[in-house]
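FW: tagging you since you asked about this chain on Friday. Here's the raw sequence from the shared folder, copied in full. Didn't touch anything.
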Amino acid sequence: MVMNTLTLTNRKHGFRAIRQGEPEWSHEQRRRAWESYHDAPNPDRITHLWRYTKPEHFLISNPGEAMLRDVPSRTGSTGIDTTLSSGYSAHGISRADLSVGIAVADEYSRAGLYVSDLHSAAADHRYPVQEHLGKLVGEPFGKFESANLALWNAGFFVFVPDNTVVREPIYLSHQPLDEVLLSRSLVVIGRNSEVTIIDDYGSDVARPCPLANSVMEIFTGDSSRLRYISLSRFNETTPSIFTQRIRADRNSHVLSVFGSFGGSVTKVNAGAVLAGPGAESLMYGLAFGDGRQHLDHHTLHHHVSGETHSDLHVKVVLKDNSDSAYTGLIRIEEKADNSQAYQENRNLLLNEGTRAESVPELEILTDQVSCTHGATVGPIDPEMVFYLKSRGYSNDEATRTVVTGFVEPTIRLLPDDLQDMFRGLVRRKLEGK
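HL: got it, structure written out here
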């Protein structure tokens, strides 16, 4: 059944929202999430995930504006260039004004690769949207995740059928355009399939946005291989909160990377659930703060099944008056014997006035595991700078060299086709651009 009108009411808020062509189950999901958002108090600052960041940064001042919009404009009618860029299997652009542009290479379209705006996919019964949307990041997850589930106004759905290898990356671009961006995306990967997804928030559109609240849910089938890269490069005045969860099934291999470079206040909650034996998750993070940026990252490796492996490396560089907080949790369930997990967070402070917190956490409910972690926080080594200056480097050149040496081991862990992109973002930060 297709609904045309949804009315969301609350003791304090009430508005009428139009979602033409949206199925009844999606309306009902939005309604439950809306009630959950308004019934839930702001997160308690005593809890470890909100110890370092004020929840008030991510409150939506006028939620009615986010919903009172038409359905997404179809590809080709928005003025968005849908020409497929060289080197990509698919290219999608989604904007907060609900305009969408999507292009998929013919060979992959014929093979069953489907890339669409989430609204259109939810109304198409051929694809498993209802079975997966909100199952990893739903109403119980938290107040701001409920807000996203109720009010999402942008985002994508990607479906990779069984036994399909997508050789070139899928590039997804989320663009705020001066409006609140509530982006939600869903990826479903079939058994024995392989794909790379570049998930770019803010892109190169350096325009201010009052708030960005984004969610990504990814489901991988047995023996699948996923490379997932998320980039945050919003305008320097934009507060953003991003929640990502990946479910890795039996014998699947997941490489996930997050890069935090833009925004005023950035909160990232990235995690993987290792749900089947043989599942492997490699997670790498690189964050660079300058000015008065505040960065807050939380990672989770949840070993639900035994015979699983996770590895995590997060590096943070801070300059000017920026600060960072990192909290990383490894949770190994009671029946997840023979799991292996490692976690590392390293922070480099380029000058006085910066601050970094690192809180590694282990929650191990069985004793037949191998689990280790490490964390470091320290200033740039003055002896390294002195040595380089004695060899003719300027002070800025010496600093750039030390920072490059700090981040390069992490960048080299990335796929070859993404290393130059990350090096360029680090270079721009060092140069103050």
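FW: Residues 53 and 70 are 34 Å apart (CA to CA).
HL: agreed, and Residues 1-7, 10-18, 72-77 have pLDDT under 50 and may be disordered.
FW: great, closing this out.
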